[in-house]
Amino acid sequence: MNNGLTEKWSKEWENGKSCQYQKNFKLQKKGIVIKATRKIECIYSRLRLMHSKLNGCLYKIGKHTDGNCSLCNVKEDCLHFLLDCPNTENLRKEIQDKNPQISNWTYEKLLTNSSSIELIVKYIIKNNILI
To answer: pTM of the prediction?
Structure first.
C-alpha cells in the first residue's frame, strides 16, 4: 500500500473512532491468524468484530426487546459477556489462572492472546452459547 495512504488511513483510524471495534482495538499492522474449524473462526470473528447473537446485538436489529442481560439487567454486549457478567466468572478465573501475565484486563488483551482466545471459544462451545 502507498505509504501516504497508509499514513492517512492510520490517522483516520486514530481520530475518527466511529464504532465499538475502533474504540476497543488499537490499529494493528498485522493480523491474527486462527487456523481452526469454521465454527471456531465464526465465534472468534463475531467476538472480535463485536457483532454477536448476544441480547445487546440482537436489540440493534430488532430481535430482542431491550438488549439486556437476563441476569444483570444491563446491556448484554460482547464486553459485558467477557469482562463483567457473573455468568462468565468461571471463564475469567480460568483465563487468569492460565495467563497470570495478563494484567489490566481489556477486551483487546483477551482477544489478542491465543491462550485466552482458545479458552473463550472452548467455553462458548461447551456451554452452547449462541455467539
So the answer is: 0.76
Q: How many domains does the chain have?
A: 1
Note whether 11 and 4 are within 8 A (CB). no
In sequence order, which residues have a C-beta less than 8 Å from that of residue 10 and are 6 or more positions away?
Answer: 27
**Cα(54)–Cα(76) distance, rounded to whole angstroms?**
6
Task: Quick: pLDDT tens for 96-117.
Answer: 999 888 778 888 888 888 899 9
pLDDT 10s digits, 3-29: 677 677 667 666 665 566 556 656 555
With respect to residue 55, please indicate whether it lies within any of the assigned structural domains. yes
What letter would DSSP give residue 125?
H
In a domain, 11, yes or no: no
Supply the DSSP string of 25-50, one letter for each residue.
S---SSPPP--S-HHHHHHHHHHHHT
Within-domain flag for 20: no
Q: Establish how many alpha carbons lie within 13 A of residue 127's alpha carbon, considering only the half-sphere containing its beta carbon.
A: 13
How far is Cα 91 from Cα 122, in angstroms, rounded to an integer? 10
- Name the one residue in this structure whose C-alpha cell is 430488532: 62
**Domain of 100?**
38-131
